[in-house]
Design brief:
With 393 residues, the protein is an alpha/beta fold. The chain folds into 2 domains: 286 residues, Rossmann fold; 83 residues, no CATH class. The protein is 32% helix and 22% strand. It is built from 11 helices and 14 strands. The strands form 3 sheets. The protein has a 10-stranded mixed beta sheet, with helices on both faces. The protein has a two-stranded antiparallel ribbon with strand order 4-5. It has a two-stranded antiparallel ribbon with strand order 11-12. Strand 9, helix 8 and strand 10 form a beta-alpha-beta unit. Helix 2 runs antiparallel to helix 3 and helix 7 packs across helix 8. The longest helix has 26 residues. S-adenosylmethionine binds next to strand 10.
């Protein structure tokens, strides 16, 4: 059994005094997007010169001042990252007409330049391609050449490293790394530079604070945590919003810290994290189930049995690197004053698909709630209003 802690700090990520220097292995985050209307009010409140620039019709000056405000957070990110720690920043560019001039505000380029100035190394980024079904997604002069603009249908996940590659040179860190392995076929999907999954489902009431949250999908946070951190690591989200990173960290059995300036978001975080174990275990069950389907298809296609076996779980795996992986189910998630404590139990042996039932799919399984208890959708719920605004990004 292992225990992880998940703190939420209500405050300004530009001053994360409660987070120690060099204590965070991975940052997964998405800031308010400069020059996207839904965040104007927040930026105006943080620096009146931003409002002045917008009111004066000076888009580039407003853009620069918004980023100067985010730069203070990026400096904090560098301070708290360990040597070799990774920062993943989900960001979309903005298109906007200010004082009759339509133009692109390249948020991703400006953030790359901030991290370079801070001395972090830029690693290959991921393009997250979001499908948009908006009927009026094309901007400009319709079928006439010269005045139309391509539609922004993607966002970026920028990836930076603080210093040289992380060393895994003690028995403890080597073992933690091997226990945190992911599946071969997951590696092939996760480490592609193009992610093509849906943004969100939109099922929230108009009064819900998540209407302003612009949450990213659970899958996005979960993958990044799996790709860039190990058991025992702490994951930080300085703009935690509705707590998607917190949920993914619980699912992945990593410690986490979320920082959020808007105390009104706490209710949304609580609504998602309290009682989240059954849904998270169901997600893990799906992961194992997909793996078993992959193994079956692979053996059928090649006519050759997979030679490696997971030492802990018994199922076949493709490579020696996966042999020591340990998947953990969430047994309990208990709220306390600063957040939550989660207890995790190693998943037992899974020899056949039927064994997956023991993974949290049914009542009585580890982490399962009372029979009939409804499981809120944890994985892809993003506010309609927020997303429709983002669709014009
Ligand atoms: C794009 S949203 C993040 C959504 C989050 N990824 C999720 O899945 O819910 C940005 C969040 O950062 C918060 N925020 C903005 N400026 C902040 C600051 N300086 N410090 C801490 N939080 C801030 C906003 O209130 C908002 O909830």
């Amino acid at each position: 059994m292992s225990t992880t802690t998940h703190r939420i700090i209500v405050g300004d990520a530009a001053d994360m005094g409660g987070v120690a220097d060099s204590s965070v292995a991975l940052v997964v985050t998405s800031p308010p997007y400069p020059m996207i209307g839904m965040w104007d009010e927040l930026f105006r409140a943080r620096d009146p010169r931003i409002g002045d620039a917008l009111d004066a019709g000076d888009g580039p000056a407003a853009f620069e001042r918004m980023h100067a405000d985010l730069d203070r957070v990026w400096a904090e990110v560098r301070r708290v990252l360990i040597n070799g720690g990774i920062a993943c920043v989900n960001i979309g560019d903005a298109t906007r007409t200010v004082a009759d001039r339509f133009r692109l505000y390249s948020n991703h380029a400006r953030i790359v330049s901030s991290f370079v100035d801070l001395g972090l190394d830029v690693l290959p980024a991921i393009i997250w391609r979001k499908q948009t079904n908006a009927p009026n997604k094309f901007m400009g002069s319709g079928m006439l050449p010269g005045g139309a603009y391509v539609t922004l249908e993607h966002e970026y996940i920028l990836v930076f490293r603080n210093g040289a590659r992380r060393a895994f040179d003690t028995d403890r860190t080597k073992s933690a790394r091997r226990r945190s392995a992911y599946f071969w076929e997951e590696r092939n999907r996760w480490f592609s530079d193009l992610w093509d999954f849906k943004g969100v489902r939109q099922a929230l009431a108009p009064t819900d604070p998540r209407l302003r949250s612009a949450a990213f999908p659970f899958e996005l946070a979960y993958r990044l945590i799996g790709m860039y951190s190990c058991e025992g690591d702490t994951v930080l989200d300085p703009f935690v919003g509705t707590g998607t990173t917190t949920l993914a960290a619980i699912a992945a059995a990593r410690d986490s810290i979320g920082v959020e300036i808007d105390a009104g978001m706490l209710a949304a975080v609580r609504a998602r994290v309290d009682g989240c174990a059954p849904a998270l275990n169901d997600y893990l069950r799906q992961r194992v189930s997909s793996h078993l389907e992959f193994c079956t298809a692979r053996e059928r296609e090649t006519g050759v049995q997979l030679t490696y076996r997971s030492r802990h779980h018994g199922f076949p795996v493709m490579t020696a690197q996966e042999v020591d992986m340990v998947m953990e189910v969430v047994s309990t998630v208990t709220a306390d004053d600063s957040g939550w404590t989660a207890e995790h139990d190693p998943l037992g042996r899974v020899a056949a698909p039927a064994d997956l039932i023991a993974l949290g799919a049914g009542p009585g399984a580890p982490g399962a709630g009372a029979a009939g208890q409804s499981q809120q959708s944890l994985f892809d719920d993003v506010p309609a209003a927020a997303r429709s605004e983002q669709a014009s990004r």
